[in-house]
Amino acid sequence: MGSVGPMVGVGLLKRNLFTSNQRPTNLTASGDSTAFFGWGLDSLLSRTLFSAGIVLALFGVLHLVLAWGLFEREPWARFLGLALGFLALLRFPLGTALGIYTLWVLLPESSGSEYERLAQGGGQLGSASVSS
Question: Most C-beta atoms within 10 A of its C-beta, which of 16, 94, 114, 121?
Answer without folding.
Answer: 16
